Amino acid sequence: MQQYHIYTARDFALDEDFQQWVLKPDVKNNYQWETWLKQHPEKQKVVDDAIILVKSVRFRDYQLSGEQKDQLWDAIWDDIATDELPVQTMPQKSRLHRLFSWKYAAAALLAILLGTLWITHENKQFQALTLSTSAAPGETKRLLLPDSSEVVLNAGSRLVYAQKNALLREVWLDGEAWFHVHHTKGNTKFIVHTYDRLSVEVLGTQFNVSNFGNKIAVTLQQGSIRLHITEQQSQHETQLYLQPGEMLRYNKQDGEYTKSRTDVTKIVAWTHGQLMMDEYTVADAIQFMQQVFDKQVSVKDTKMLRYRVSGSMPIVYNADTMLIQFEKAFGVHFYKH
C-alpha cells in the first residue's frame, strides 16, 4: 500500500482506494485496510475522521413545502443562475424576483442527492452544479465540497455551494463555518457570500466566518483573503486584505467595521469541540444557547448578564448538559422558555 502512515484525514478522504473501501467495501479491500490498521493502530483516529469526511458528501433529504421550494428556487436562481445552468436537477423558473436576505433564501435548504461521489478529477469535463446542506441545532457537520475544499459547519448554520463555470466557486453562508479551501491549478476564485454586503474572496487558505444576528466576523488562520464590503449609502465597494491572525468585525445595522489582531486558536476552537472563554459574559452564554441549540434562556436579574469568566470548557452537543456547565461556570441559574 502507499505511504498511508504519513496521511492526514484529508489525504485519506481524497484517496480513490480509500473512497472505494468506505463506499463500496468488499472482501479484498476490507482485508487490505483492516490488515493495514492492525499494523498502524496509531492511525485509527485519523482513518475514522477520514471516513466521516467521505460519507459526509451524501446529504440527507429535506422535506419542503411548496411555498418554501418556490422561495428557495427564486432566490438561488436569481442570485446564482443569472445565466442558464446545465444542471439537470435544477428546474426552470418562470418568475424571478430578488430575495436578497438569507432569511428567505435559506428558510429551508434543498439537499440535492448525488448518485456519485462529489470528489471529481480536474481532467474531467466541467459540469455546473448547485448543492446545499445545513447543520441542525445541537450538531456540527464536517464535509468536503465538490472542489475538495474542507468545511466544518457549526450548529444551526446553512450553506449553499455553486459553481456555474470553471473560473469561479461560490458559497452562501448563514451561520458559522471554518474553511480549508483547496487551491486549484487554474487559480479558481473561491468567494464566500454572507448576504449582508460583505463577501470573502479566497485564493487558497484556512479561515473562519461567523454570520449570526447583526454581526459578521471573518478570521484568517492561514493564507490570504480579500474582503469586499459594499457601503450602505453610496454603494461604493471597499476592498480590504487580511493577514493570518487578523479579524474583521462588521456590523450589519450601520455598516461599520473594524480590523484587529486576534488569537485565532480561540476563534476556531469550536471546530475541535472546545469553547474558549475570554472575559465571557452570561449574555454571551445566552447567545451561545440560542445559536447552537435554538434555545431561549434567561436569568432572573439582568445585572447577572455582565458576569464574566475566562477559561475553556468542552462543547457538549446536548442543550441541558451545556446549560448545566454554564450554570457551574457563572454560579447562576438559567431559566428556559
UniProtKB/TrEMBL annotation:
Keywords: Membrane, Transmembrane, Transmembrane helix
A GO molecular-function annotation: sigma factor antagonist activity
Keyword Transcription regulation in annotation: no
Stretches that traverse the bilayer: 100-119
InterPro entries, per database record: FecR (IPR006860), Ferrdict_sens_TM (IPR012373)
Superkingdom of the organism of origin: Bacteria
Domain FecR protein residues, every copy: 135-226
UniProt xrefs under Pfam families: FecR
Protein name per its UniProtKB record: DUF4974 domain-containing protein
